Task: inverse folding
């Protein structure tokens, strides 16, 4: 029995996805969450997850940060991004940041089932038309891949402008531990300041243009 985690904060869309999944995988086990913190809780609680269907615009996430963190935390678990932002650049960035597939929220219902079967079989599923590869995003993905999941969390909170003490409170860490993480993040990302690291993290956000 395969376990599928559906991460989307819109109840009606989540229900539609779950219905489509049950049609495609009648014997599958479906889990649903509505925020980044709930995604992380599910990853901690579930020893085996075979696939994640991930919305990019959930509470607690900054664009592709959820995808990058998920790939760092559980690199063996394939991720299909499901998003209403299906601009070619968004699709290409999803692929460069480690997604195994991309399905637009405006796609026919059958596309989701086809994508799920393809990715579970070890393949990938992306629209035929997507933007050209970006060397900037490739470099960013490579730099972020050096960070541990906890360092990624610290980076995302840095991007929100939080101080070390506030980050420590958010993550349940000692302030000195946060300082160590911040130092490691700056070194690995080749950033001279917290501000520079924050700007880098914010580049993970989604383009507003359609």
Result:
């Amino acid at each position: 029995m395969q376990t599928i985690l559906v991460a989307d904060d819109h109840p009606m869309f989540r229900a539609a996805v779950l219905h489509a999944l049950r049609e495609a995988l009648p014997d599958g086990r479906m889990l649903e969450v509505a925020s980044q913190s709930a995604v992380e809780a599910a990853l901690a609680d579930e020893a085996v997850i075979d696939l994640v269907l991930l919305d990019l615009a959930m509470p607690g996430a900054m664009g592709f940060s959820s995808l990058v963190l998920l790939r760092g935390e559980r690199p063996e678990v394939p991720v299909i991004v499901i998003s209403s932002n299906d601009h070619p650049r968004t699709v290409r960035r999803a692929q460069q940041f480690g997604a195994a597939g991309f399905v637009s929220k405006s796609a026919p219902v059958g596309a989701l089932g086809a994508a799920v079967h393809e990715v579970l079989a070890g393949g990938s599923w992306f629209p035929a038309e997507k933007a050209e590869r970006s060397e900037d995003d490739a470099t960013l993905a490579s730099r972020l891949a050096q960070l541990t999941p906890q360092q990624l969390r610290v980076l995302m909170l840095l991007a929100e402008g939080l101080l070390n003490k506030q980050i420590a409170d958010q993550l349940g860490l000692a302030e000195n531990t946060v300082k160590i993480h911040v130092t490691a993040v700056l070194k690995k990302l080749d950033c001279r300041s917290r501000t520079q690291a924050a700007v880098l993290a914010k580049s993970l956000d989604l383009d507003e243009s359609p």
Remarks:
- Residues 175-189 form the longest helix (15 residues).
